[in-house]
Design goal:
By secondary structure, the chain is of the alpha/beta class. Helix content is 29%, strand content 25%. The protein contains 15 helices and 25 strands. The longest helix is centred in the first third of the chain and has 16 residues, at 35-50. Bound molecules: malonyl-coenzyme A (MLC) and adenosine monophosphate.
């Protein structure tokens, strides 16, 4: 049933834009782009995409380095009423094949160094249009914009139309597409701007990648929705962050960013003088990091909790007590509950599954209606797979995960996916992939491998073989070779026993 109303994420951002001449972002080379640039350049991209004859809702898959032009591409895709499908730049060709095929992409935009290989792949998969866009903003996409009009009418999408398709892996090892609607993204960013007190006076230090929810919808979204500015770094590097902090007011990052900053003696109170807020998320922030950060800088990190499927669900307060080891309380408009195995809400203090409901929650998994149905309760709450408790004041603490997943430096790795790759290698009988604690990444991926009887396998060779097939962050940083895996009476591998055994290895 088509919706009577229309809502487009870009139009919502646009309604909050300040004076067009105001600075939107400054690159690491000191080049400044204004809100007028964002409006004009995204219009040209929207026009160029629409001229391809695409249908509303077609997927535009994007695997490019972070650049202002990559941001215009995101905005232009949304303006054209197409679906933005961001891809981690670390993905290998093998991984891309799966994503492009599953998404049924109409367009791929990639780095020119990969264009030849990916054009062949796209021809085989039926992805009709391949453009390049390099880190310096050049490429066939930019060439295509010559002479294209710099004004356009943004598509009148319905609130429930998909704006973005973002993949996350799963316990079966097969990544699944998460459909985020215009409504989902507008509702969440509107709340965050308000809760975190963003105004036109802010300048966000943006070091995150822009192919995930955190760097794209949360970080850039808060800037666009408050008419503020951002200092744009290509990636996280301590020296560059130290140089940018005195010119910024807010920083968002994964816990690894804060741990790495604390590892540098030059990171002190004076460097943070201009800052009003540090926000952490995507992985658990250790209480030690929170405490050390406060001692060193006088700032308490504001920790929040979210997921690709839901956007942000809880947050520590802007004003009020930020509690170490908690992710704060439910955001306005988000219902949060802790349930037992029968979806019955538990009392304060009890540990159970965290379930959430609200306009922020995604519309479903792409082409997986059964999986979608299984992940929602009868009364419409989404099962996050995170184990949590909530105290009497409403502060939520994430205490574990019922899903078998490792979070390394803010990136999720599903053991099943890595185990399948290892098990397919010659000489391997079976494997178990686990997360081990790590001071830098929070957790690192480790593999415990059993060779076929009579054969010898080598840990470093396994790592090299995996490196050909999977993004580097998924490749186990440690490999242990054993004769057999510990199993319980049901024959299930006891991963906790492995974690305990190799914790300090
Ligand atoms: C890179 N590597 C990683 C890694 N990142 N390995 C494990 N975990 C990671 N996160 C690989 C590199 O490719 C390299 O492999 C080796 O590890 C050493 O890398 P490095 O130089 O230390 O890594 P670096 O480039 O500095 O990157 C680390 C990082 C980065 C933490 C800065 O991963 C990062 O920016 N993470 C943020 C991810 C993020 O945005 N998450 C949000 C998801 S959204 P080799 O083989 O070349 O040696 C979400 C929802 C929510 O979760 O709630 O926000
Ligand atoms: P993603 O699939 O990348 O969106 O990752 C979402 C998962 O990251 C959640 O289900 C949590 O397990 C985890 N996560 C995000 N923020 C936090 C946090 N502040 N503390 C603990 N875990 C978090």
């Amino acid at each position: 049933m088509p919706s009577a109303s229309s809502l487009n994420l870009y139009t919502t951002y646009r309604s909050r834009f300040p004076d067009p001449a105001r600075c939107l972002l400054t690159t690491p080379d000191g080049i400044a782009y204004t809100y007028a640039d964002a409006e004009r350049e995204s219009a040209r991209i929207a026009n160029a995409l629409m001229a391809l004859g695409l249908a509303r809702g077609d997927r535009v898959s994007v695997q490019v380095d972070k650049s202002p032009q990559a941001l215009w591409l995101f905005l232009g895709t949304i303006r054209a009423g197409l679906v933005f499908h961001p891809l981690n730049t670390a993905y290998t060709e093998k991984e891309l094949r799966y994503f492009l095929q599953d998404a049924g992409s109409a367009v791929l935009v990639c780095d020119s160094r990969r264009a030849d290989a990916l054009s062949t792949l796209c021809a085989a998969l039926g992805t009709s249009h391949v453009f390049t866009l390099d880190a310096d903003g050049t490429g066939s996409l930019t060439e295509r914009l010559a002479g294209v009009s710099a004004t356009c009418v943004t598509a009148a999408t319905a609130p429930e139309d998909t704006a973005a398709l973002v993949y996350s892996s799963g316990t079966t090892g097969k990544p699944k597409g998460i459909m985020l609607s215009h409504d989902n993204l507008v509702a969440n960013v509107t709340t965050l701007v308000d809760q975190w007190g963003f105004t036109g006076k802010d300048c966000l230090l943006h070091a995150l990648p822009i192919f995930h929810v955190h760097g794209l919808f949360v970080a850039i979204g808060c800037v666009l929705m408050s008419g503020s500015a951002m200092r744009w770094l290509r990636g996280f590097a301590v020296d560059a962050v130290l140089a940018a902090l005195p010119h910024s007011t807010v920083m968002m990052g994964v816990p690894t960013y804060y741990a790495r900053l604390l590892g540098n003696p030059a990171f002190d109170k004076a460097v943070c003088d201009h800052m009003r807020l540090f926000i952490s998320g995507s992985a658990p922030l250790l209480a030690e990091t929170f405490v050390e950060f406060e001692q060193r800088t006088g700032h308490t990190i504001l920790e929040r909790y979210g997921m690709t499927e839901t956007g942000m669900n809880t947050s520590n307060p802007l004003h009020g007590e930020r509690r170490a080891g908690t992710v704060g309380s439910a955001l306005p408009g988000v219902a949060v509950r802790i349930c037992d195995g029968q979806d019955r809400p538990l009392p304060a203090g009890a540990v159970g599954e965290l379930q959430v409901k609200g306009i922020n929650v995604f519309t479903g998994y792409w082409k997986l209606p059964e999986k979608t149905a299984a992940d929602f309760t009868e009364d419409g709450f989404f099962r996050t797979g995170d184990q949590a408790s909530r105290d009497a004041d409403g502060y939520v603490a994430i205490v574990g995960r019922s899903k078998d997943m490792v979070i390394s430096g803010g990136l999720n790795v599903y053991p099943r996916e890595v185990e399948q790759l290892i098990d397919a290698l010659p000489g391997v009988r079976e494997s178990a992939v686990i997360g081990l604690p790590d001071a830098d990444f929070g957790e690192i991926v480790a593999a415990v491998v059993v060779p076929v009887v009579g054969q010898v396998v080598d840990g470093e060779r396994i790592r090299l073989a995996l490196r050909q097939q999977a993004a580097a962050f998924k490749v186990p940083k440690k490999v242990f070779i054993v004769d057999e895996l510990p199993r319980n009476a049901m024959g299930k591998v006891q991963k906790q026993a492995l974690r305990d055994a190799y914790r300090s290895a």
